[in-house]
Amino acid sequence: MQTFSFILIASELGPSGFGTFSAALALTLVLAPFVEMGAYAITVRDSKTPHLLATSLGTTLKTTSVLLPVAILVLTAASYLALKELNLILTILLGLGVFVGMRFMYVAQAVNASLSKFSRNAVFDMGLSLALLIGAFSVKLIGSGKVDAWFLMYASIYGVVGFLFFLFTTRAERIRIGAGGSWNAIVERLREGWTFAFGGMAQSAYSELDKTILLNLAGAPAVGRYSMAVRLIQVSYMPINALLNVTFPKMFRLMDSNEVGALSRYLLKIILTALVYSVLCVLTLQVLAPLLPNLFGEEYASSTHLLKLIALAVVLQGVYWPILDALTAMGFQKLRMIITFGGVAANVTLNLILIPSMKEYGAVVSYLASQLILLVVASVLIVWSTKRMVGKG
């Protein structure tokens, strides 16, 4: 259903309106990890006992409340200085939806994943998708101001649905949140979470920062056409993402038992499963890409070629994401952060070089090249890390 809402809203807003929204959303998603400070991974890790989980969630909520005003100020400054085409008020409201609602959603998903309540996450995803679809239909009925309406609709849906899902999850599991909010606990979370925050920002930057660069160097219509292709890749990757949500907690459990060899075999199994799906997905996208103008309108005709090229990213992500998760489970989160930032640096550099002459095609080349670099480096480091831990054992 999220796919249907995406098709509907992209066709209604057109490349320019969809590009404007995508650039604003990209900026909020890049900043969002600094609000949660690794809450997803830390929640999964701290789910061993109900008391530890309740304390961890209390610290997460109070840390987020402290960091939220800072994130809004940074978003405001970045929007005003770097993305003057955006409506500042609407961007701030979108930021509140992402910084608060989406963070509630991720933490609730982490609680359910750590407790193996995957069906609950699936039901929530269906509810969120239905809400977005209703929102997209509501925007379609509006005669004018559709871009502004979608900003408000998107922020409201994530804010309300994310909070309700968090509330339902904690009530269903009888988690009494309260302890864990002392200043010492918040400082400790900041000390522990900064590597997750920078790592999360780098990961978001891979798929989002290029849209803000593209907006400044090539304009909103180019962002819209490029975002169309990238969004379809993200939708195609959802089954792998669901797989990783299931496997990530088990990686921590294997490391708690010091089973490095078992983790290596488990990682290989995940990668092979993801590869089979990824290859089939790429072939399917090559066949379906010519249908884009029929679904979204002739304004998106060039997105057909963009999608055919960028589809290769599904294969690259299907391999390097499980490796990055394994590095985190093995205690190498700082290493993960460093290599991810290296990939982002390569992505930004290539974008600044290629976009002025190649526009959205330059963004595609930069996207694929930087992800290939990350895959190669991550593969080398996981082998090194495994050998190092086996040697210590």
TrEMBL record:
Keyword list, A-Z: Membrane, Transmembrane, Transmembrane helix
Localization of this protein: Membrane
Predominant cellular place of this UniProt entry's protein: membrane
Lineage top rank: taxon: Bacteria
Topology of the protein relative to the lipid bilayer: Multi-pass membrane protein
InterPro entries named in the record: Polysacc_synth, PolySynth_Transporter
Pfam family, one: Polysacc_synt
Transmembrane segments: 20-42, 63-82, 88-111, 123-143, 149-168, 266-285, 305-323, 335-355, 361-384
Protein's name according to its UniProt entry: Polysaccharide biosynthesis protein
Source species of the chain: Deinococcus aetherius
Lineage: Bacteria, Thermotogati, Deinococcota, Deinococci, Deinococcales
